[in-house]
Amino acid sequence: MLKTVKVRVPGTTANCGPGFDSVGIACTIYNSLELSVSEASGLTIEVSGEGAGAIPHSEKNIVWQAARAVFTKVGFVYGGIRIRMDNAIPLARGLGSSAAAIVGGLVAANSISGNQLTRQQLFELATEMEGHPDNVAPALFGGITLSTVAAGSEGASQAHHLRFLPPAPLSMIVAVPDFTLSTRASRQVLPQTVSLQDAVFNVGRTAILIGALCKGEFQHLQYALEDKLHQPYRQKLVPGMPEVFQAALANGALGAAISGAGPCLIAFAVSRETAIGDAMVAAFGRHQIKAGYHVLSIDPDGAKIIN
């Protein structure tokens, strides 16, 4: 007997300037995942699209690791496993490809084993696997998410999130350079401590950012997206970053930031998306970096079963 489920998971942009490890947005770029369980034995993994030549086809595959975590937790007995991945989210670019893989595996396995875990329990598992909740929260719940990990009632860490949608449409223009950057490498350049002045700077910017997004007052984004905790240190890893930001703003963007850990750079706008994208790509080109771009909007749903 063959049981199959198909899941669609959005890409995500995290940090959003000052909201380091806390703010995330689900984007309208997707990975699709088909998980099948049969009475046979063995593991078969097929990958098409982004990362087809790089993603493991073995038990090291993160989708399978996530699915297996659910099966183990609920005591689901499985035989043969077939996973088919069709990826549009660029790998190691700051658009949440690992979070999408984790969330896709969890949601698919939960569905095929009878939906025994709640979304909150899936969120806890995803946060544990990813190491932080800022990407997995929007991938799972959709919209704009604010997330944190805090001590629970018995002292164990517990992931929390708050989700909302802005009251007006907002576009995200993502410039995608042709090189990758691992989250680990991007974190290694960050300082262990920051000044009180820089911490206060980010607290103020994050407060204005969330207020502007909640109320749809996007004119505040140009300064609300400023950051002193991670972007100044990661700038050396993304050639031409200040010029790409300036090009976006000069062509109508409301503000710009590094997407996640980079190297994608993201601009926010309500019009002139093509002009902004072309200008960002041209600015990368002046630094001998080939790039393309996507014009995205906010995905409201998060991971969902599509069959």
TrEMBL record:
Domain GHMP kinase N-terminal: 61-143
Annotated ranges, domain GHMP kinase C-terminal: 212-274
Coiled-coil regions listed: none
GO (cellular component) term, any one: cytoplasm
Pfam (any one): GHMP_kinases_N
Main location: cytoplasm
Enzyme class: transferase
Pathway(s) annotated for this protein in UniProt: Amino-acid biosynthesis; L-threonine biosynthesis; L-threonine from L-aspartate: step 4/5
GO molecular function: ATP binding; homoserine kinase activity
Protein's UniProt keywords contain Amino-acid biosynthesis: yes
Protein origin, superkingdom: Bacteria
InterPro entries: GHMP_kinase_C_dom (IPR013750), GHMP_kinase_C_sf (IPR036554), GHMP_kinase_N_dom (IPR006204), GHMP_knse_ATP-bd_CS (IPR006203), Homoserine_kinase (IPR000870), Ribosomal_Su5_D2-typ_SF (IPR020568), Ribsml_uS5_D2-typ_fold_subgr (IPR014721)
GO biological process, one term: threonine biosynthetic process
Protein name as it appears in the record: Homoserine kinase
Organism encoding this protein: Propionispora vibrioides
Lineage: Bacteria, Bacillati, Bacillota, Negativicutes, Selenomonadales
Gene (name only): thrB
